[in-house]
Amino acid sequence: MVVVFVLGYLSIALEHPLKVDKAASALILGTVTWALYTFSGADPHHVQEGLLHHLSEIAQILFFLMGAMTIVETVDSYHGFSIITKRITTTNKVKLLWIVSILTFFFSAVLDNLTTTIVMVSLLRKLIDDRETRLFYLGMVVVAANAGGAWSPIGDVTTTMLWIGSQLTTTTIITQLILPSMVTLLVPLIFLSFRLKGNLKRPELEDRDTGVISPKIQTLIFIMGVGGLLFVPVFKTVTHLPPFMGMMLSLGVLWLTTEIIVNKKKKVQETQSLLNINNVLQKIDVASVLFFLGILLGVAALQQAGFLDLVADYLRDTLGNIYTINVAIGLISAVIDNVPLVAGAMGMYEITTPEMLQAASPENAEWLSFFVEDGRFWQFLAFCAGTGGSVLIIGSAAGVAAMGLERIDFIWYLKNISLLALMGYLGGAAFYVFVM
């Protein structure tokens, strides 16, 4: 299973040299690892139950992604993002880099790193004409989205897991992690500010049916689209239902609104291809969704077989220090999805209660104190798991989304962004350890 996963991972990383779409490699990786697990002597009923359990979690991510992509594409079809792009008038490379990165950082905390990346990909297509230059900005979007998601309970899946599991509270997440997260973004930002020079060329956007789409309609769809994305965490908090349910509700309301707008237009037949979500759905990158399915199935198979638990145990036995363990988890999350890594850490270390501290020996009391509610282990785990994935483009949902939507090459990201992301990650980690 490990060999198949590694070979599949390499074929994904070498997608362009091999000329094989990463979705095909991921689907083979995901299905073959589960097939091999069935031949390992495990109880077939247990294997099937495990697969269905993981599939339910994976499906939630996929439906969430599809809903977010559809909402963003709909807002784009109605020129809704022009409300922002019209206000970003600078063509100076450094100024634009700071504006885009800071916007991404705070958007990610309010929406989440995945949704924010999808939005920013669409925005950058309207701001930067040269693709090579745009890729640099997208690389920084990935770093900024992951950094922004780490200090918010709804900004990253792993932080949300620790928040729901009562390892961390909202106040602690924000107050203890916002400054290290800022450092993670500022280090590569400052470095790139000395490298980038001159101005960039903005694309000449085609004027699509400006007579059909009035400024009022553009504003309405933009507000409904962004408002719908913001509504998702509120819906989750109130109903305790999975986030994808809120996303589907937001999509349904936006869809209904667009149907009413289309039906009120006199030239329905002429404008339907632009305004109807049925046609917007054809723009969704299904290959990226299938890539997510395959890679998450593969990780789930390794988790089900116990390989990730072995990794967690190895870290505990060989490293010992909570700061070193978490830094290692963050770097590993650049290769393997951070969700099962955090889930493994949550299962390996239980929350220390006051009674456990009182009963512990003096030698163990100090170690156990790191694992109390809002303890430093949980804080640093949230930071490292959230930001370490930026080191490789397939190490986070934000990176995979950018890779799929803009066809960013794994090797290109490795050469141009990985070192910057690593500098930021280590800088933020050092800031947390020595300052916070």
From the N-terminal CA to the C-terminal CA, the straight-line distance is 41 Å
Number of helices: 24
Give the averaged pLDDT, no decimals: 84
Low-confidence stretches: none
| Cα-atom radius of gyration | 22 Å
Strand content: under 5%
Number of strands: 0
Broad shape: globular
The assembly state of the depicted protein chains is single chain
Order of helices and strands: HHHHHHHHHHHHHHHHHHHHHHHH
Task: Note down, in words, how this protein is organized.
- It contains 24 helices and no strands.
- Helices cover 76% and strands 0% of the residues.
- The protein has 436 residues and is mainly alpha-helical.
- The two termini are 41 Å apart.
- Helix 18 runs antiparallel to helix 21.
- The model has no long low-confidence stretch (mean pLDDT 84).
- The longest helix is centred in the first third of the chain and has 34 residues.
Any key phrases for this structure?
mainly alpha, globular, 24 helices, 436 residues
